[in-house]
Amino acid sequence: MNTIEFRQVFKSFGPVNAINGLNLQIEEGSVHALLGHNGAGKTTSLRLMLGLLEADEGSVSVFGLHPVADGGAVRTMCGVLSENTGLYEPLTLYDNLIYYADIYGMQREDSNRRIDELLERLGLSDKKFIAIKGFSTGMKKKAALARAMLHSPRILLLDEPTSGLDPVSTADLRELLQNLSKERNTTIIMTTHNLEEVQKVCDSISILRHGQNIFSDSISKLEESRHYTEHGVFSLEKLYMDVEARP
Ligand SMILES: Nc1ncnc2c1ncn2[C@@H]1O[C@H](COP(=O)(O)OP(=O)(O)O)[C@@H](O)[C@H]1O
Ligand SMILES: [Mg+2]
User: Fold this and answer.
1) Which of 61, 71, 83, 245 has its CA 20 to 30 A from that of 46?
2) Model pTM score
3) Tens of pLDDT along 138-159?
4) Burial (Cβ within 10 Å: 0-12, 13-18, ≥19) of residue 71
5) Which atom belonging to ligand 1 lies closest to the Cα atom of 191?
């Protein structure tokens, strides 16, 4: 089975050891959450997967590819939602998406079909010909998500996808991600602080602290384990608090 794997990875920025002996394994087709406090190394891990950064030590493998040596192939395989939406504010949503579709080398007919399908699923159809600068934070996030999914990537890397989204948009996004992982076997890796959302949408989690993986497991195993319960039901929040409180 294909996996995304970190083996004993180290990455420093000057004196800061952002990634500090990270071991991590994520199965193809799963929805995986990277959790951890601010500065734990989540965004840096995503950038290592994309080959935007190179590990100082250890190895990162994305379905058997090396993110730096095979950078083009890895980045084509990935759709990314990061803090920077990558959208050009003066242009309409459609013009932004067509611009990226062209970069991906998609045929116009396919691009147009795909754009309409995504806008429909994200509830953005009526915003197609509106300039991004008139969008709310939540709409920009959805637009950025449409951009990330345009070329039907095998892997989606979502850095805090639900921050700034209202509860309805968060629920829409959840449904979209669940369908993607089921219908297309898309591997989805997301960082978030929204634990309730993680418990609903994710198959597995890792908790990072100081650039190390201090806890990894599947949600279904955790739910079966009868540990970390609140009123008899598994609570990811309880788990997170307990694990983070360990020395
Ligand atoms: N480009 C950079 N230059 C210097 N320090 C960085 C850089 N990127 C991240 N860091 C540092 O690395 C650590 C991990 O950051 P990051 O991966 O962004 O954490 P998270 O996404 O979990 O909040 C932090 O201490 C952060 O300040
Ligand atoms: Mg981050």
Assistant:
1) 245
2) 0.94
3) 899 999 999 999 999 999 999 9
4) middle
5) 21
